[in-house]
Design goal:
Elements: H1 5-24, H2 29-37, H3 40-66, H4 71-84, H5 87-96
């Protein structure tokens, strides 16, 4: 298992940036999301983003299952993914590591 330094850096940087932008925002996340979905071009980006989020949730669940964990262990990461998209998978990688298909000797 490799050290998830890149995921940790991305998690910290993006979390700080997300918090900063939320403090400056003039509208709630729900209002912002509804505004994005009101136009076909921005709706396409949101749909694409959430399709990738769904794939990340499937990956987290399968990875946790392969490590003998239940869905309950993945649920906090799934909730974070539903709200903030990449923060959930990044936190999962930082906490649980990233195990690929390659075998280490």
């Amino acid at each position: 298992m490799t050290k998830p330094y890149l995921a940790l850096a991305a998690l910290l940087g993006f979390s700080v940036y997300t918090g900063y932008t939320m403090l400056l925002a003039d509208q709630s996340l729900i209002d912002f999301g509804l505004g994005l979905m009101s136009s076909p071009d921005t709706a396409q980006v949101v749909i694409d983003l959430y399709l990738m989020a769904i794939l990340a949730c499937i990956w987290m669940y399968q990875d946790a299952r392969s490590k003998g964990k239940t869905f309950i262990a993945v649920l906090p990461y799934v909730v974070l993914t539903a709200v903030f998209v990449c923060i959930g998978p990044l936190l999962y990688i930082v906490v649980n590591g990233f195990s690929g298909s390659r075998r280490e000797a």
